[in-house]
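Quick one: structure for this chain?
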Amino acid sequence: MKSGGTANRDHESSLATRAAWLHYAGGLTQAQVAKRLGLTSLKAHRLITRATQDGLVRVIIDGDVGECIDLEQQLIDAYGLDYCEVVPDLDQDELPLKALGIAGAQFLKREIDRGEDMLIGVGHGRTLAASVEYLTRTAAAHIRFVSLLGGVTRKFAANPHDVMHRLAERTGAQAYVMPVPFVANTAEDREVLLGQRGISDVFDLAGRSDLMFVGIGTAEREASLVATGMIEHSEIDEVKRDGGVGELLAHFFDDKGRPVETALSERI
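Got it. Here's what it folds into:
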């Protein structure tokens, strides 16, 4: 059993880690951190300073938040996952892209540094774009990145091709884009596009990926696919009417994880 002094030190260390995470990764001011944790501003300042002095603050926060670790283990046990990382919820209405982006960047950097996955397929979405944004520069000339989907969009900042270019720029790796629209006009057009030399080569390369770095989207009108102009409101409405709740690599599924087939499916 831990003594009272040891328990208090452990609690203070955990609190310092949480305060530092909220400040540096979550982007909260020290006053906001204090309010969030129910502390005085002076106490919050001291905790953040302590985390820095103890070496917990680098480019990332080198410490664990107990609640997140518990949730990670629950998810691993429930779904048989090999790896899971949960980031603290900042109670924001919008998607916490900074927190998710930092976690995604750390995961991708670890995989690059391991050097076991020589061909990495890359999906689409705001979370993946944020992950690349927070990825530190690293030498990875031995790695190849390949788009898993087409992705000509009206919003350049979320364009998968732009994400691929940034990946190549930050890592020195080769990047192969899928130079086709996300959704073809018809199923026949899709077959013609995939039959073109160059396009079929990239498509085949994507199928040989050692690791696929992808995001999971929703079937809501606010989804990234709709916001970036990849699909229309009417198309996502059809998916939802047919029971779709989520999306992975442009394939929709229901609340049981079963595929949802719509008229959109044969054009992707």
